[in-house]
Amino acid sequence: MLQYLRIACKLCYYLGLAFFTYLMALITLQYIPLNFEVSFLVLKDELVNKLHYQIAFFAHVYTSILVLILGIPQFSLWLRNKFKLLHRNIGKAYIFLILFISAPSGLIMAFYANGDGFTKTSFILQSILWFVFTWIAFKSALKKSWISHENFILRSYALTLSAISLRLFKWIIVSVWELPPMDTYKIVAWAGWLVNLLIVEFYIYWKSQQRK
């Protein structure tokens, strides 16, 4: 019975992740080819003409969806056991994109985030932690420290999933409460990645207790 429950939970996880990734892909497609008329950029009218922001924005948008997709199969034991080389190559692509494009471009965008220093601090911290967690996961893999690698890649992907959770929390808040838009934005700016990290930290702790 417990085995079937685990299979059902995994199935729900992958189906849910695939569905929300599909929604994120639809958002990304709005910016292909280079499109400055999408609502998010319309609100950034004063920044659209700044070349460094244009490069950071489109680099972040185009690579973040790839990172999200690449991370989905990486936690499959079946893939890791049956197709180790594929797992390794997907992992390398995931790490490369975050370290060299997604996280640095996200950090640049964070300094121009809507709202005051409270929201900017959230996105800056998130971008830095995204880079650091991914870097430690990479170094752990090189050292064949697999438990450390797994833990930090989980933390990294938790921050990758913030693209989904931020929008999900925003939808929940707007549906339940009538808060001013900026108050909602301040809440989801932090909740979008902190909640993910808390869940992952609980899971890592639970796994460590299971090993003992």
Summarize the structure.
This protein is mostly helical and 212 residues long.
Rounded to an integer, what's the Rg over CA atoms? 18 Å
Question: What class would the helix/strand composition place it in?
Answer: mainly alpha
Helix residue percentage: over 70%
Order of helices and strands: HHHHHHHHH
Biggest sheet character: none
- What's the number of helices? 9
Strand content: under 5%
Low-pLDDT parts are: none
General form:
globular
**Oligomeric category:** single chain
Let me know the number of strands: 0
Spatial separation of the terminal alpha carbons? 24 Å
- Average residue-wise pLDDT: 87
Number of domains: 1
3D structure, described in words:
The protein is mainly α and 212 residues long. It contains 9 helices and no strands. It has one domain. The protein is 82% helix and 0% strand. Helix 8 crosses helix 9. The model has no long low-confidence stretch (mean pLDDT 87).
Secondary-structure blueprint of this entry?
Layout: H1 2-29, H2 39-42, H3 51-71, H4 77-82, H5 84-110, H6 117-142, H7 146-160, H8 162-176, H9 181-211
Task: Sum up the structure in keywords.
mainly alpha; 9 helices; globular; 212 residues
